[in-house]
Write a structure and sequence with these properties.
Largest sheet: 6 strands, mixed
Bound molecules: guanosine-5'-diphosphate, magnesium ion
Helix content: 40-55%
Shape: flat
Strand content: 15-25%
CATH architecture of the largest domain: 3-Layer(aba) Sandwich
Radius of gyration: 23 Å
CATH class of the largest domain: Alpha Beta
Structural class: alpha/beta
Number of helices: 14
Number of domains: 3
Order of helices and strands: EHEHEEHEHHHEHEHHHEEHHEHHEE
CATH superfamily of the largest domain: P-loop containing nucleotide triphosphate hydrolases
CATH topology of the largest domain: Rossmann fold
Length: 360
Amino acid sequence: MGLSCGLIGISGCGKTTIFNAITAAGVSSFGVTEMNHSIVKVPDERFKKLVDMYHPRKQVPATLDVVDIPGLKPDGNNSGGSGFKQLGHIKNVEALLHVVRCFEDQSVPYGYDTVNPVRDIETVDLELMAADSITLKNKIERMTKKAKAGDKDAAREVTICEKVLAALEQGIPARRQEFTQHELNSLYECNLVSLKPVLYVANVKSLDSGNKHVAALTGYAQNEKADVVVISGKDEAEISQLASEDRPEFLKELGLQESSMERLLNTANKMLKMVTFFTVGEDEVRAWNCKKGDKAPQAAGKIHTDMEKGFVRMEVIHYNDLMELGSEDAVAKSGKQHLEGKEYEVQDGDIVVVRFNKSK
Ligand SMILES: Nc1nc2c(ncn2[C@@H]2O[C@H](COP(=O)(O)OP(=O)(O)O)[C@@H](O)[C@H]2O)c(=O)[nH]1
Ligand SMILES: [Mg+2]
């Protein structure tokens, strides 16, 4: 399963347009209430090279789930947690691509008279925080009852939730609060939406430098150590509809080396600390994703749950060594193949074989 990202932002900021640019889906921009969903292949040079080397019968690149979550309409009445009717969809994604309108165009309807990225981000964050407040209050209520019955763990959970709630009430989204690992574990089941990592997408009319809205957004994002990707949504959505061989020329005209999708995905992968590893062979070359720090059995579990349960060991060579030395045999002879156990952290570019006991 791929990683999932949700496009969020105020109605009219360009989410659907950017969804089209990323997925080349060609979805109508005016179906405001429709939720669009697409699975996109993550572009990866290494994957292509492995396919060239093995000529497998089947090739499966890593994928990313992209969801276009219908937005928030600013009507001055959005602070009660009701703006995002689609909140459930936000709960289901692992990362948020927050699209921020940075283009001025009176002809494109928008809830506000002016363009103001910081105001827009704060409006959306208020919504996310309102939803989290409800989640936390519910948990506090449940845990308080247990605590009264003498459950010490529940009492500690109440303390943690109250701390987060107090900070939310001061306007600090959970992702900007500091937590110990213990606190994070305790909050895990709450699935707080304001804790999800955010990548800001500045939607501009043209990629010329000197857009003051982009500058404001970038300044804001720096404060929370978030990344910003600048996209000319409309132009790139149009380019994504062209035949793939024609796209590079038009991208070049915009002054771009790679498409917005590639820039977005690369930045999102970095933000989410994703690790790509591979399985190779004549049958199949396949790319997999896990999180940085995942141990070998967890990573093997992405391939098959049996591999996690019955994990014995992992045989690993690195992509770079394979490319440098030309074959698996050569890598093995050079002593660069290694056998790893349950404590091994899978590295980006690892090519693995999992040995495991089949469950009965
Ligand atoms: N001028 C201009 N219009 C854009 C740009 N991006 C999107 N739009 C237009 O803005 C309108 C709203 O975009 P849409 O993607 O539907 O926004 P959503 O409500 O966030 O999904 C559409 O009419 C788009 O054509 C842009 O970069 N420049
Ligand atoms: Mg839309």
